[in-house]
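Backbones bend. Shown next:

***
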Amino acid sequence: MNISFEIVPRTLDTFEKQYAFVQSLDSGINIINVPDIQRFDIRSWELATRIDRRKYRFVPHFRAIDFKIDGGELYRIIEQYQLDNVLLVTGDPPEGLKRSYCNTDVVDLIRAVRRRFPALNIYAGFDPHRHGLQHECHYIQRKADAGADGFFSQPFYDHRLVELFAEHMDGLETYIGISPVLTLASQNYWEVKNHVKFPKHFKPDYDWNVEFANKVIASALENDWNVYFMPIKVDLKKYFERINLGQVVRQDYCLDQLEQFV
């Protein structure tokens, strides 16, 4: 089982503080995921030199709308920063259309990058709230057929929905998104902006979100899923000191011990 931790590069100082926090955890976190957000000055791939890639897999995001398939810029970045992993997403057009963007389809981009870099680990995203289950699973399969090795999801808030998608993604390297929602304002944002339907028993507090995260981790261990933490506007220490990452460390230790006798 893998656990990914997303660090949003708002500023270099903010990134360094969150990265230091991850390093301080005695946990099973082994992937650092960095989104590429246009309104920030730091691009995701520029942080390749600031992460210990012997300890963490580095997965920078790339937005399809920023690159032309025949432009060569994305290929140059992958080679220059010696990237082993990328996450290719569609990306939202810039607000007010103040910046130019490309009409590149992410499926086409996945296919082109796979042709250029056969050994590269290419990940894509999926959103359990965007469309119905059948439509989203069809979209996932198109990306897999184009060359995506695995998928990182938008956050889940209903374990029943996790189980439904996990069943349909059998055989694909899947990372279940977890992002705590701790205020009514944040809950409203997710409902309006991302069309999330929270379960009736949901509460925007630490207790509910910690319990849900621990339940997902336990299910991931049992079902060979992976977990993707997106801690937005959260007290990291207060949240993660109650997250049961120790069970992942214990499992990995037991597997290592078992391999010695195989």
